[in-house]
Structures are given as C-alpha cells and as structure tokens.
UniProtKB/TrEMBL annotation:
InterPro entries: RmlC-like_jellyroll (IPR014710), RmlC_Cupin_sf (IPR011051). This is Mannose-6-phosphate isomerase. It comes from the Bacteria.
C-alpha cells in the first residue's frame, strides 16, 4: 500500500471512501441469515471457523476470534473508486491522513478512529455478559466498551428464536445470589438470567449499554455502534445449547484474579445493573433531528452517552438533499438506491462473499461539514441510511 493510493482514493471520492463488505465468522451461536449475504456463502472459511454472523463497519480493530483467525479479520478495507481491486486498510487511511480524515479534535483526543459499528445477526440469543469498565480494562491493557443497539425493520423479516434482551439484574437481587451462580460456572447450568430482567425488542428503537452492565442480546438483527474494544466477561455458561468454558468468564482478568470471586463480582457495576428505572435511563426511542416534510427526515437512534452516536436518514422517492454533519462518520445504506456524493449507492440484496458493494461509506470531517449530496433515484421506495459517529456536541443528552 502506498500513501499515494490513500490520497488518490480521498480525492477521487471527493472526501468519501467506499468501503468493502467486512464479514466476520463466529464459532458460537447460530447464524440469523439476515446479512444479505448469499445463502451459499455463510461458511467461507470452513465449518471449524463458524458461520458468518456479523458484518463490521468502518473498523480499525481486529476481532478476537481464535488462533486460526486471519491477521486482518475485522479490519475494514477501502476500495479505489476508479479500480475497486485496488484496496487498502481503513486503519492505514486513518494513520496516513489523520486529522484530514477524522478531524483535528478526534485525532488529537484519540489518535485514531475510536468507534465502529456492526450488524449482529444471530438466530439464537447471546450469553449474558459484561464489557469491562475502564479501571478493570486498564489492568489488562485494554479499553472499556460501551455499546448501543438499534433494530432496523429493513433487516428483520423474522425475529429469530428469542427476540428478547436481558439487561442487568432485577433490583431485588443481592450480590450473594450472583456469587452463588458464578461459583456454579464449571459445575452445572447456572441459569443466571433467572436473576435478570428482559425486554421484548421493539423494531425501530434501541438501547444504550454502558460498560459494566450485564446484557444478553436477543435474536433480532442488531445495528450496533460501539467503542473500539472487545473485552468480555461471560457470566452465563449454557445458552441455546452451547456451553462456555470458565475461561469465557475470566479471560480478561489478570492471571492472579482468575479465581478471585470477589474480583470477578467487582466487574459488575452494581448500581447501574440493578437500576429500578433501567428502561427510563437506557431505552433509546428515535428522536427527530432534522427534516423537511415530504423530502427527508433524520433521527437520532444512538444518543445520550459520551462515546457513540448514530442517526437514521430517510430520503423520500425522487428527492435530493444536502446533509451536513458536525463530524466524520461511517454509514450503511439499508434500503433504496441513488447517489451518495459521487458514488452510485444502493442497499445490497444478495452479496457474494468477497464481492464489492456500494452500500458502505466513510465521510471525512471536512466533507461532513460542507455537506454530502444524496439522491434517491427510486420512484416509490425511500432511501434509508444508518450513520455512526463519535459522540459530539450536537448529540442529544438523553
Ligand atoms: Zn455486548
């Protein structure tokens, strides 16, 4: 990869990159088959690596995905507009362009693009797990991971086996009850969600989950903006017929703490987990952000936290808009077709593994501020785009 190629791509794209679909296999859970990937292509790496269950967007981070994962798994690639076979890592683009791509503020504060988003596509529910808070992540040289969910209609023609998400623990539960379940981790099914509380997933809405809050995501396809990190502690050992070894509970604990039950319990932010008003504080119904009747509407779908934000932009048939944002962002077209800046843009229908698409973009800060011109070329269907950001001053508080 030469630096010239990065500059050429930014120039040709007039401040916007076209990204290559970035599919991720997982060995746990069952695939939901809602990623618009060709049904024959869900095992591109063979059965032992598991089916494709996620698609990652604008990612500069690797997946922690076992010893046989290829070196660049999880990292997004940019394709040159004039020759899509010429590609480079989005991560390299951030390194080469720095503030020119992501803006001075973000570059000075983080030195990189600090978030990404994914489509999370499981037919089965995921284990009840926590992402470490910063003071625990520091002990193993990692970062905390706050995350958010949004459930788009366009990718959810069926709900999977369990469209219900558990959060935290019921306010009546005490720490000794949790301790007892964790001590059973290697003995028997600890059924820890018996102590939790769950909400049925409502399409077109979302949630915010701070680090330190336990959660067991349900089986709808989820658009998930999150911080650049992958540090779990899995507190549920049997889920949807899968069994999880003790290491899933303690893999991000320091060596000398792996059998220290009080340390493991301290990973749980007790106050937030047992908040009796959990829904009031963390449910995220969409909030109107901008619009013009009959032309377009933009809604905040992730907001009310200091890390991550996302919007859903809908453009009515036949309309053209110039949309401005305060900062750089990644985005994915989930419905319709038309133009996005200089690019022909279209929601993918059936993607062959390895094939290029024109549904994913990254917009530089300068371009975001001056405005991206987007046209919907359909006569009847809206064009819908999900956009993910680092939280900034424009984002509603909650
Ligand atoms: Zn999680």
């Amino acid at each position: 990869m030469s630096n010239e190629l990065v500059y050429q791509a930014l120039e040709e794209g007039e401040g916007i990159f076209n990204l290559v679909p970035n599919f991720v296999p997982r060995r746990f859970g069952e695939a939901g088959f809602r990623l618009r990937l060709h049904p024959d292509d869900y095992y591109p790496f063979g059965l032992k690596r598991g089916a494709i269950k996620e698609r990652w967007f604008s990612s500069v981070v690797n997946v922690i995905n076992g010893d046989d994962a290829p070196e660049n798994e999880g990292l997004s690639y940019v394709a040159l507009h004039s020759d899509t076979n010429k590609r480079f890592l989005f991560k390299e683009a951030v390194e080469v362009l720095g503030a020119k791509l992501i803006g001075k503020e973000l570059f000075q504060e983080y030195g990189t693009w600090p978030m990404f988003a994914k489509f999370f596509d499981y037919k089965t529910p995921l284990f009840h797990h926590i992402h470490l808070m910063q003071h625990h992540a520091d002990l193993v040289g990692k970062m905390a991971k706050p995350e958010a969910y949004y459930f788009p209609y366009q990718l959810n023609n069926y709900p999977g086996e369990f469209p219900v998400t558990y959060f935290g623990f019921d306010a009546s539960v005490n720490l000794d009850e949790i301790k007892e379940r964790l001590l059973q981790f290697e003995e028997t099914d600890n059924r820890i969600t018996e102590l939790s509380r769950a909400f049925r997933i409502q399409l077109g809405t979302g949630w915010y989950v701070p680090a330190g809050v336990v959660h067991a995501p349900g089986s709808y396809l989820t658009y998930e903006p999150q911080w650049n990190s992958d540090v779990n502690a899995v507190v549920e050992n049997v889920v949807a017929a899968d069994h999880y070894p003790y290491d899933f509970l303690v893999e991000n604990c320091p060596e000398d703490k792996k059998h220290d039950i009080d340390f493991i319990l301290s990973l749980i932010d007790w106050e937030k987990n047992t908040d009796p008003e959990f829904r009031k504080h963390y449910f995220r119904p969409p909030l109107h952000s901008a619009g013009q009747n009959g032309v377009f509407e933009e809604k905040w779908i992730t907001y009310g936290n200091e890390y991550i934000a996302a919007k859903e932009l809908t453009i009515e048939p036949g309309k053209t808009v110039s949309v401005k944002d305060h900062s750089a962002y990644g985005c994915i077209v989930i419905q319709g077709h038309g133009k996005f800046g200089i690019y022909d843009a279209e929601a993918a229908q059936v993607i062959r593994f390895g094939q290029m698409t024109s549904d994913e973009f990254f917009v530089s800060e300068e371009k975001a501020k001056s405005g991206v011109v987007i046209s919907n070329h359909s006569k009847y269907e809206p064009m819908v785009i999900l956009k993910h950001f680092v939280s900034n001053q424009d984002v509603p508080k909650a």
